[in-house]
Amino acid sequence: QLHLAESGGGLVQPGGSLRLSCTGSGFTLNYQAIGWFRQAPGKEREGVACISSSGALPNYADSVKGRITGSRDKAKNAVYLQMNNLKPEDSAVYYCAAMPGARDGLCMHGTYSTTDFSSWGQGTQVTVSS
Q1: What is the pLDDT of residue 61?
Q2: Pairing of strands 124-128, 10-12
Q3: Measured between alpha carbons, how far is 12 from 5 in angstroms, rounded to an integer?
Q4: Where are the beta strands (DSSP E) in 9-123?
Q5: How far apart are CA 64 and CA 37, in angstroms?
Q6: To the nearest whole percent, how much of the chain has pLDDT over 70?
Q7: Are 8 and 127 in contact (CB under 8 A)?
Q8: Tell me: the pLDDT tens digits for 74-96?
Q9: Alpha carbon of residue 119 to chain centroid
Q10: Which strand (E) or helix (H) includes residue 109?
Q11: Burial 40-75 (b: 16+ CB within 10 A, else e)
């Protein structure tokens, strides 16, 4: 099983920005689609963004579209989620996850679910509050 680690969460005021990072331990993320999910208390885990192995055609949930940008830096073996104009309803634990196999199509078309990802990080808390 691959080990992923998220970082960059924190407390931010409404309208603020955060950049989350996802790194792999002992393996490369460069050949896998990476999904970003979030889970708020009492709610199901939901997909926020999916970044294909090439970084092309990132897919975003409607709730964050226009405010979030996913990218990857293959030299740093990292995937990022830049979040702008944050809202209180964005508060959640954010997770990154790796999708095994060459299934970038699921990622690009947004037809993925949590079961398509086999390795998960521990999560990073994002709290948007004044």
Answers
A1: 96
A2: parallel
A3: 21
A4: 10-12, 18-25, 33-39, 46-51, 59-60, 68-73, 78-83, 92-99, 119-120
A5: 12
A6: 99
A7: no
A8: 999 999 999 999 999 999 999 99
A9: 13
A10: helix 104-109
A11: eeeeebebbbbbbbebeebbbbeebeeebbbebeee
Higher local confidence (pLDDT), 62 or 100: 62
Identify the band that residue 26 occupies on the pLDDT scale cut at 50, 70 and 90: confident
What is the radius of gyration, based on Cα positions, of the chain? 13
Q: In whole angstroms, what is the distance from residue 77 CA to residue 14 CA?
A: 30
pLDDT for the residue 53: 92
Grade residue 1 by pLDDT with cuts at 50, 70 and 90: low
Distance CA(110)–CA(63), nearest Å, equals 13
The pair of structure tokens assigned to 2 is 């691959």
With beta carbons less than 8 A apart as the criterion, state whether 76 and 94 touch: no
Do the beta carbons of residue 40 and residue 62 sit within 8 Å? Answer: no
The pair of structure tokens assigned to 45 is: 């885990």
